[in-house]
Specification:
With 683 residues, the protein is α+β, with helices and mostly antiparallel strands. The protein is 63% helix and 9% strand. The chain has a four-stranded antiparallel sheet with strand order 2-3-1-4, with helices on both faces.
Length: 683
């Protein structure tokens, strides 16, 4: 049977590899792929893309000399602007020079039709052309929204390779330290690799069959979930298998017992994560919604591999896979006392003091979440400043009276003149020009007095929408940010309550209780708040981040609740079996601590990526998992369980263990365990 399972997975990998490799080509990181589905700015982006020439790549060529521009410098700018006009199809007419009041900076805005991008890297070509003007101290740079998007795409293109290599190294090191074996660590790592291939192939199948949008962020999180969750499941199964080998002579029988005893908790754990991620399908923000199915596919593939392929390989290799620490058959596992026995003793002796102290610590950290910085601006999205961001800041200093980033207004062609007149009368608008019309729509480029992504610019866009009403659509890059923020707030109000409700139902079904799920959910919500509070202390003061990604609270909540509840499931499920806190804490403590470290480490891999949003998400989730693993689960939850006593399981009453009586495992009676079983079982 193990050989048949191995052969099946070899065949699956052989079939899946071509599709897994094709997923990268289906990854979409365009603005529309991240924007809210029904927002005005999304509609504008789609309509503009369908106009002749498609959307535009908006660039700004910037020329600067510290002592003031010379006539020769302006001639260079004119020559290069003419070259861009000859080389590309421009929207809105020939480029014009705009000189700053101080005479030291000159900008040339250009809008290149998207039709020019077929087979070309437009931004790279314009930057190459501009480099010829960097002579005699003249600084020439290329920025604008199109350059910013290009720099973002280049950053996304480097993410997959960095993420995979660093994740493999981190997981391998942790497994070697955990097992202290030259061979055993390879098995979970190889199995997570199989799961990753299966997840990527499955995600590609969803793209092909249902048009699922997969962006770089959702793909990165899927990879992290496969390695993190898959390694956790492997740790739990192998720990139980090792103990069963000490009391069972045949490896096959030991694995059967280990598999049977760990499956309820592992399957419920995976089901909780999948259910939480499934709620994201209801989000309006495209990037958030895409993370639901991709993450769920990753967890399901990890579950399938770790509950079939890993057990099969372990059985085939037998006890020798644990060399040099081979578990010897002794008929009964030895009872060992360790750190978690002492923690359990402290919790049972002083539950009130433990609960009060821990609550104060977590609560104090959670209070810091109220200081979460404002929405992250596009120019602050990188950990290392690219050329486009440098240009944006130079233009803000040189042209404080006008924006270098236009607002796009779409009006029906028959009403275009009236709309232009109304736009020009809106406070904060400096100019409004019709640049093209097609398919019944006129595209109007609007320049504001406020700087991009500022509060004043947001107020101008709001006034434009109020003035124009249903007569026109207002979009552009800054309008997209406004719509994204509104969509994120709406998603937060929908997703968070639904995730809590779904997870509560699953916990109630597993634990046969209404009180225990409330305890676990309260604990993970507190951890979420504390993790965000730690983020507030780190993001600005230590890392220098100028804001927080708008989706951070929602995404971190989903992951910390879905993943954090897992460890509570393992603990309370065992408390219900044993009927006491100390043996349950002793049985689950070590292996779940290892699992928590691995999960936190895999999410911390996101912090090495060059995007602030991913660094923030990885940091908050890693901190939350560690808080849950080393504070909430071993101290606060057991202390609360000790104080609640049998009320924890209301309205059910679990049978007491010991004395030959039976205990309930997920509602199914089974014989009471021996003291050796109690002390050594992993889950």
């Amino acid at each position: 049977m193990p050989w048949a399972v191995l052969a099946l997975w070899v065949a699956v990998v052989a079939l899946a590899l071509p599709f897994a490799g094709a997923l990268g080509g289906e990854t979409k990181d365009g603005e529309v792929d991240y924007l809210p589905a029904a927002a005005q700015s999304t509609k504008v982006a789609r309509i503009v893309a369908e106009m002749p020439g498609g959307g535009t790549t908006d660039l700004v060529l910037v020329y600067r000399r510290a002592g003031g521009l010379t006539p020769a410098d302006r001639a260079v700018a004119a020559r290069q602007a003419a070259a861009v006009d000859r080389e590309f199809d421009l929207v809105g007419g020939a480029p014009k020079q705009i000189v700053a009041d101080d005479g030291g900076t000159l900008m040339v805005p250009v809008a290149i039709a998207a039709s020019e991008e077929d087979g070309k890297d437009v931004v790279r070509e314009v930057r190459t052309l501009a480099a010829d003007g960097r002579t005699g101290g003249l600084i020439v740079r290329v920025g604008g929204p199109g350059a910013l998007a290009s720099d973002m795409d280049e950053t996304y293109g480097r993410i997959d390779g960095i993420l995979l290599v660093v994740t493999l190294v981190v997981v391998a090191v942790l497994l070697v330290l955990t097992y202290r074996s030259p061979f055993l660590w390879l098995l979970p790592l190889l199995c997570t690799g199989v799961a990753a291939v299966g997840a990527m192939a499955s995600a590609y199948a969803l793209v092909d069959a249902f048009g699922l949008t997969v962006n770089t962020m959702s793909s990165a999180v899927m990879t992290i979930l496969v390695f993190g969750a898959g390694t956790d499941y492997a740790l739990l199964l192998i720990a139980r298998y090792r103990e069963e080998l000490r009391r069972t002579e045949r490896a096959y029988d030991a694995m059967r017992r280990a598999w049977r005893n760990t499956m309820p908790a592992i399957v419920t754990s995976a089901g909780t994560v999948v259910a939480g991620l499934a709620v994201l399908l209801l989000a309006d923000l495209n990037s958030t919604r895409a993370m639901g199915p991709t993450g769920a596919v990753g967890v399901l593939c990890a579950l399938a591999v770790m509950t079939t392929l890993l057990p099969a390989v372990l059985v085939m290799l037998g006890r020798r896979v644990f060399w040099p620490l081979i578990p010897a058959y002794a008929g009964e596992a030895a009872t060992r006392r360790g750190m978690y026995d002492r923690i359990g003793g402290l919790v049972t002796r002083r539950p009130v003091a433990v609960l009060l102290t821990g609550t104060i610590v977590v609560g104090a950290l959670a209070l810091g979440a109220h200081g979460l910085p404002g929405q992250l601006r596009r120019e602050d999205a990188f950990t290392t400043r690219p050329e486009s961001v440098t240009v944006m800041r130079e233009l803000a200093r040189a042209f404080p009276e006008r924006s270098s980033q236009p607002v796009t207004v779409l009006a029906h062609t028959t009403d275009a003149h009236s709309v232009v007149a109304d736009v020009r009368g809106v406070p904060g608008v400096t100019s409004a020009t019709t640049v093209r019309d097609a398919s019944g729509w006129a595209e109007i480029s609007v320049t504001t007095t406020a700087q991009p992504e500022s509060g004043a610019e947001a107020a101008t866009i709001t006034r434009l929408r109020t003035t124009l009403g249903d007569r026109a659509l207002v979009g552009g890059h800054s309008a997209q940010d406004i719509d994204t923020a509104a969509s994120v707030a709406s998603d937060r109000g929908l997703v968070i309550p639904l995730v809590l409700a779904v997870v509560f139902v699953l916990l109630a079904l597993l634990l046969r209780s209404l009180v225990a799920p409330l305890l676990l959910l309260g604990a993970v919500v507190a951890v979420w708040g504390a993790a965000l509070g730690v983020g507030v202390l780190v993001f600005g003061p230590l890392l220098g981040f100028a804001g927080a990604d708008a989706t951070l609270p929602t995404l971190s909540f989903v992951f910390l609740v879905a993943l954090g509840v897992d460890y509570g499931i393992f603990l309370l499920h065992r408390v219900r079996q044993e009927g006491a806190v100390i043996p349950a804490l002793t049985a689950t403590g070590g292996v779940i601590a290892s699992a928590g470290i691995v999960l936190a480490a895999t999410f911390s891999v996101l912090t090495v990526l060059p995007l602030v949003s991913m660094v923030e998400l990885g940091l908050v989730i890693a901190v939350g998992v560690l808080l849950d693993t080393f504070l909430v689960r071993p101290f606060l939850v057991p202390a609360a369980a000790q104080l609640l006593g049998r009320r924890l399981w209301w309205p059910a009453r679990p049978a007491r263990t010991g004395g030959g009586q039976t205990c309930l495992v997920g509602g199914v009676p089974e014989p009471a365990r021996t003291p050796g079983d109690t002390a050594s079982s992993a889950v």
